[in-house]
């Protein structure tokens, strides 16, 4: 921990920065969704660390114990439920254990695995983010005095959206004609969550069409073409 981190972590929480002293480990494979959480932490005074897979999250957790862990339910090397179950019974305990997903049906499995709360994507509300964490911290970790409920929402960096598109485009290209692999299923789930977070309805629809398509190859071709179009559009911004 550097000098600035030590200074920030030693300061008591304030109404304006109610999460000073809190470390949040975000286990999220989307750079776009992670940038939203970075901005939420920044506005709240929390320190953020990111892991993009179960394996990387476990490496973080061998080194330190964060105050809060936010786990995406669909990760490249396994379901988020695995990490939630591990952490819900861990010693020392994590003070705040949250789950997130663009798929609302994932809430029941997240809670069953040990999540204290499920946060549906897109997660951009400062009030929702702060309340989910503060409501589970002891009174001595709360800011003193009245705290106004913030109405602010964050707007993630569009370049992070493009980075996610480039990543999944590369994954689909590497798979070639293999249309039934788990990697394709992961890419489709990833895109569905990304599209929801970005408010991109046509991309979300194209991703959801894969599972019900009678011609999966044609549906994947349409999805790839849409991804490439989005990448070109982002490059001109």
UniProtKB/TrEMBL annotation:
The modification 4-aspartylphosphate is found at residue 72. Residues 23-136 form the Response regulatory domain. GO terms for biological process: phosphorelay signal transduction system. It comes from the Bacteria. Keywords: Phosphoprotein. The keyword Heme does not apply. This is Response regulator. It comes from Pelagovum pacificum.
């Amino acid at each position: 921990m550097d000098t600035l981190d030590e200074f920030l972590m030693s300061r008591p929480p304030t109404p304006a920065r109610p999460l000073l002293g809190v470390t949040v480990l975000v286990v999220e494979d989307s750079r776009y969704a992670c940038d939203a959480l970075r901005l939420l932490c920044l506005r709240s005074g929390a320190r953020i660390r990111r892991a993009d897979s179960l394996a990387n999250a476990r490496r973080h957790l061998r080194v330190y114990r964060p105050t809060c862990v936010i786990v995406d339910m669909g990760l490249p090397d396994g379901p988020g439920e695995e990490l939630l179950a591990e952490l819900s019974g861990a010693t020392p305990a994590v003070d705040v254990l949250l789950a997130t997903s663009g798929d609302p049906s994932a809430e029941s499995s997240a809670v069953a695995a040990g999540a204290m709360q499920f946060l549906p994507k897109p997660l951009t509300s400062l009030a929702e983010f702060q309340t989910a964490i503060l409501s589970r911290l002891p009174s001595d970790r709360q800011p003193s005095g009245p705290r106004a409920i913030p109405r602010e929402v964050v707007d993630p960096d569009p370049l992070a959206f493009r980075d996610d598109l480039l990543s999944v485009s590369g994954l689909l290209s590497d798979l070639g004609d293999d249309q039934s692999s788990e990697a394709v299923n992961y890419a489709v789930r990833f895109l569905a969550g990304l599209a929801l977070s970005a408010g991109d309805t046509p991309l979300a629809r194209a991703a959801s069409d894969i599972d019900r398509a009678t011609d999966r190859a044609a549906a994947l071709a349409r999805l790839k073409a849409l991804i490439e179009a989005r990448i070109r559009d982002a490059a001109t911004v």
